Amino acid sequence: MIEKREHPAFEVLSDHLDGYLSREEAAAVSEHLSVCISCAATYDSIAGLVSSASGLPQSVLPPDDLWIDLRKSLDDRKEIVLPVANGPGDDRVGSMASRRMSRRMVAILAAAAVFLIALSSGITALVLRAGVGNDSTRRESNRAPAQLAARSGIPPAFRQTENEFNRTIEELQLAVDTQRGQLSPETIRTVDRSLAVVDSAIAEARAALLADPNNQMLVDLLSASYQRKLDLLRRTSELGSRT
Amino acid sequence: MPTNLAWKHSTESMTAVPPGNESPERDDDARLIERARAGDVDAFEHVYRREVGRVYALCLRMTADATRAREVTQSVFIRAWDRLGSFRGESQLASWLHRIAVNEVLVEARTDRRRRARVVLADDQRNDESGAQMDAPSDAGITRPEDSDTRIDLERAISALPPGARTVFVLHDIQGFRHEEISRMTGSAEGTLRAQLHRARKLLMEALSR
């Protein structure tokens, strides 16, 4: 309880301004402010500061070229198929539709797995072909990714993109993990198989890129693998939320 | 360290608009979002042009660093693009983007703290605890609107606040969030947030009275 004669602390005046004090405390502070010039001046200063802060512009223009960089990033990611929300009734899709969706989903996932196996084989072929007649390159590609990272590294231009991919993947993975109970065992098996194939393709493309950081084709292949994983997780997450 | 703070206030919204209280634009939003979901980057550019000022202002004030603000703003719109499928129109587009922006800045701040901690461990020369004391930004790059010296002084003083106090001040006193909302966003206890806000206000009053 605040005594009427006691000078309230700065924190109390600040809380009083924000309306965080109890009715009794607020009444005591108000009464004190009506008789204490010093505290009233401090209170007015806090109020003035808060008023100035709330009046600061809510909009500040960024550098003009920000959109150009952003557009480039978006164009790179454009291949990702975004799920379309169909409205508030989405969560109540009937079981018939869900089963139809499950079968379609399984077919899509199976196709994705085949695609990734082909992609993965393509990377292997590419790396091996680049290494023909060059034992040192072949030895490099057989090293563990961590060892290779220490020697060369992912191209700086791709590093931020990769971080963004990984963050989104992490979030989607979390969403999928929480929805596993809502998916059929058949779908879960297919998803897990496809994810394993995608992860293997990512690891392989990454190792190849670490060994040959200036190879744009490997950057594209790695990017495509990440996008495929995002797509897979996003579709699975969407399916989980509908069933 | 804050670098090259460039406060170019856009003319389209010089007045404070608390998140969630924007004028109704849902029909436009719905059409733009529908096109953007289908991969139309031009439609997304309309969203960007309309909202980037508010997103960048938040990022710039919370990071107090133009380079980081730019990176975080870019991340916000990339995240928004990736998550268009989850935007169901129940909240306004501006509020939805605003939540993504706050989250991105907080994630970036945590990453930055971890990065600084690693640097401190690796190089014992620094004893500055998580960069809490920031240098006041220089005048370089600051565009002063003709009649807003006081406003610029306040912006500079805010950018020189310790990160925790700055975050709470920006979210509470500029963006208009209540402590319980900030608590949900940051995971900090309301008591801690109130203490940070008092500290921020006290430091600002001292800085502005010099």
Tally of DSSP helical segments of chain A: 10
Greatest contact between two chains: A-B, 44 and 61 residues
Mean pLDDT level of chain B:
76
Helices and strands of chain B: which structural class? mainly alpha
Strand proportion of chain A: under 5%
Distance between the termini of chain B: 22 Å
Low-confidence stretches of chain B: 1-6, 10-24, 120-147
Sheet-strand content of chain B, in percent, reads: under 5%
- Total helices of chain B: the number is 8
Give start-end ranges of low-pLDDT stretches of chain A.
80-102, 130-152
Number of E-type strands of chain B: 0
Taking all Cα atoms into account, the compactness measure Rg of chain B is 18 Å
Order of helices and strands of chain A: HHHHHHHHHH
Shape of chain B: elongated
Distance between the termini of chain A: 55 Å
Written account of the structure:
The complex is a heterodimer of chains A (243) and B (210). By secondary structure, chain A is mainly alpha-helical. Chain A has helices at residues 10-18, 23-35, 37-54, 66-77, 95-131, 135-142, 145-151, 156-179, 185-211, 216-242. Helices cover 75% and strands 0% of the residues of chain A. Chain A is elongated, with a radius of gyration of 29 Å. Chain B has 210 residues and is an all-alpha fold. Chain B is 63% helix and 0% strand. Chain B has helices at 26-37, 41-63, 66-82, 93-122, 149-159, 163-174, 179-186, 190-209. Chains A and B meet through helix 1, helix 3, helix 4 and helix 10 of A and helix 2, helix 3, helix 5, helix 6 and helix 8 of B.
